[in-house]
Design a protein that fits this description.
The chain is mainly alpha-helical. It has 9 helices and no strands.
Length: 283
């Protein structure tokens, strides 16, 4: 007759503390993010190869392709530990996975708290980054597209004000500047007009020579930093939802891995107990 096997002591040899639901749920969870990490690395490598080497090296520290590859590789390693650890019921790999997720979660939490406490320093750092981006505006097409997108979406121009574009060698207002764009601003600073379907890329010509009020008739004169701060303040619930959406998968992974680790430890103790009593001649 079928049924579970029991030894002479009456112990069920097929009994296990490890839940198949937890085990394979953790595996599927890691498999999904493992595939996502491969996609991220592939996109990062492709974007990196498609860019000119000179342009890529100019803004290496803020290159989105490099950031995508770094995040993708880290995700690949961590989720690989989770996949193999859950399938093989390997405590070492599962603990590595759990510790890595916990560290990442705590770092994100600490970054959010520090960013809130030191908001003034964060603002100064953002100002420096925007100033650096303005200087390298013409050197990297991806950076140029990003700045143009931001200025059009937020309706702003420059970091603090539209004259910040004088930091760029092409838009500089110095008399000896031979550039045709001298004392101008990018077309993305211009106030869009409804009657023109074709974008006038020369609409920012000579705008830095105009007074603030006069220039405001043609371009956005307010800087992007204040616009960005106002957008963050008005979208706190949205940003909180995004942060929560990033935190929930990490907490789920930590919880499932910890449950599985405890189940495996209980299973090992049960096996050791059975072996001890099976070899006991007095049992």
């Amino acid at each position: 007759m079928g049924g579970r096997r029991k030894d002479a002591s009456g112990y069920d040899e097929d009994y296990t503390f490890v839940s198949p639901v937890v085990k394979y749920l953790l595996f599927i969870f890691n498999l999904i993010f493992w595939i996502i990490s491969l996609v991220m690395v592939s996109i990062g490598v492709y974007a990196r190869m498609m860019k000119h080497a000179e342009a890529a090296l100019a803004c290496l520290s803020v290159d989105p392709a490099v950031m995508l590859m770094v995040v993708g590789v880290l995700m690949f390693i961590i989720t690989f530990c989770g996949c193999v650890g859950s399938l093989r019921e390997n405590i070492c790999l599962l603990q590595t996975f759990c510790i890595c997720l916990t560290v990442i979660f705590l770092l994100q939490l600490a970054a959010g708290i520090l960013g809130f406490i030191f908001s003034d320093k964060a603002r100064t750092k953002v100002t420096e980054m925007i100033s650096d981006a303005i200087i390298h505006y013409r050197e990297d097409i991806d950076l140029q597209n990003l700045i143009d997108f931001g200025q059009k979406e937020f309706g702003c121009c420059g970091g603090v004000t539209y004259t910040d574009w004088s930091q760029n060698m092409y838009f500089n207002c110095k008399e000896d500047n031979p550039s045709r764009e001298r004392c101008s601003v990018p077309f993305s600073c211009c106030i869009p007009t409804k009657d023109k379907e074709v974008i006038n890329t020369m609409c920012g010509q000579g705008m830095q020579d105009l007074e603030y009020i006069k220039a405001g008739e043609y371009i956005h004169t307010n800087g992007c930093i204040d616009k960005l701060v106002n957008w963050i303040h008005s979208n706190m619930f949205l940003l909180g939802g995004v942060a929560l959406g990033l935190a929930i998968p990490q907490l789920v992974g930590i919880l499932l891995s910890q449950i599985l680790i405890n189940q495996i430890k209980d299973q090992i103790e049960l096996q050791n107990y059975n072996l001890k009593h099976r070899s006991d001649p007095w049992s």
